Amino acid sequence: MPQEFIVSPSNGKTADKVGLDPAIGRKLAAGIESGLLRDLHVVLAARRQEVFIEHYATGSDENWGSPLGHVTFDAGTLHDLRSVTKSIVNLLYGIALDKGVVPPPDASLFAQFPEYADVARSKITIENALTMTLGMEWDENRPYTDPENSEIAMENAPDRYRFILERPIIAEAGTRWIYSGGSVALVGAIIERGSGKSLPDFAREALFAPLGITEFHWSAGRDGVASAASGLRLTAPDLLKIGMLLLQKGSWNGRSVVSEDWIKASFTPATSTGDGLSYGRLWFIGDAPAPAFSNPRPWYAGFGNGGQRLWLMPDAEIAAVIYSGNYNAWDAWITPTRVWREIVLANFRQA
């Protein structure tokens, strides 16, 4: 079924006001109609806290792998973030650190799990979990429908934390980036142990309530543990709020929600992903050209299976949310990348 779009009539005027081509909405629609941009559910972007593009579609969707059928998306529709969840967990760790309820990143990782002393490795730190440089075997290159995928195997394991912590060492900690939902599960567990709250309850109190986010869902495994790697569902406007919080250096309505120092450290490249991007603390880092600037500018993003994205370019004061339905497809990255580079940034005219 063709995608149907609801386009805000104010987009053109707002885009022009904040320095983007007022035809940006029509250009997005043309890309979809041509077939170049596929499987989009939502595109929502703002500059200086003003939304300049807001497109909603209809399409098939899932909730953490369970089919939802054909969904008509709008500003109130919850949507899987998949691995964008990891970047939200980064913020939760930073908030917990500000509150003094979790150890600093340079602390021993295994010291936080004393019940697994039989598999402890002394040189691995929490920072290694935050930057996915544990040096431990993990395979998420398989489809998430494959029980041999390490995240799925973790969810099916009788003890998720033992499953993660006993993975074989294949590189020295800190020397190699290995994409790992297990590393984020450990980060989530440390937040829960330190705060005395479940991850969803801590998120509700520490991050969502200050931003006025009232509706969310956090999928949990059979053991009742919320998935820190991929389980969060948010509306597009609420994810955009989180993006704007980051552009405002962690402050919202005059209140510090997460420290600026934590954001700076999280957006500092810690390792290379091996495909032209860098990785900070649970954030991807790259750069891209924008016509208003003479040189490419850095961007930061949370990436999720199926084409979920939260893109940020602080130099341009732009945040963009993209929700898609191309789950488990090798080419799911193409459409959100084209929307970001060829629609949002290419139509950015004034610094």
CATH T-level topology of the largest domain: Beta-lactamase
In total, the number of strands is: 16
Q: Specify Rg, calculated over alpha carbons.
A: 20 Å
Characterize the main sheet.
9 strands, antiparallel
CATH homologous superfamily identity of the largest domain: DD-peptidase/beta-lactamase superfamily
- From the coordinates shown, what is the CATH architecture of the largest domain? 3-Layer(aba) Sandwich
Shape: globular
Provide the structure class: alpha+beta
Average residue pLDDT: 95
Strand order of the largest sheet: 1-3-2-16-15-14-13-12-11
Number of individual domains: 2
The CATH class name of the largest domain reads Alpha Beta
Element order: H for helix, E for strand: EHHEEEEEHHHHHHEEHEEHEEEEEEH
Topology at a glance:
Layout (H helix, E strand, L loop, with lengths): L5 E2 L3 H7 L6 H10 L6 E8 L2 E7 L1 E6 L2 E7 L6 E2 L3 H15 L27 H5 L19 H7 L3 H6 L15 H15 L3 H13 L5 E2 L13 E3 L1 H12 L3 E2 L2 E2 L3 H7 L4 E2 L5 E2 L4 E5 L8 E8 L3 E6 L4 E7 L9 H11 L7
Antiparallel strand pairs: 1-3, 2-3, 2-16, 4-5, 6-8, 7-8, 9-10, 11-12, 12-13, 13-14, 14-15, 15-16
Organism: Rhizobium changzhiense
Keywords: Hydrolase
Pfam families: Beta-lactamase
Features:
20% strand; 2 domains; Methane Monooxygenase Hydroxylase, Chain G, domain 1; 16 strands; 11 helices; alpha+beta; 31% helix; 9-stranded antiparallel beta sheet; Beta-lactamase; globular; 351 residues; disordered N terminus; single chain
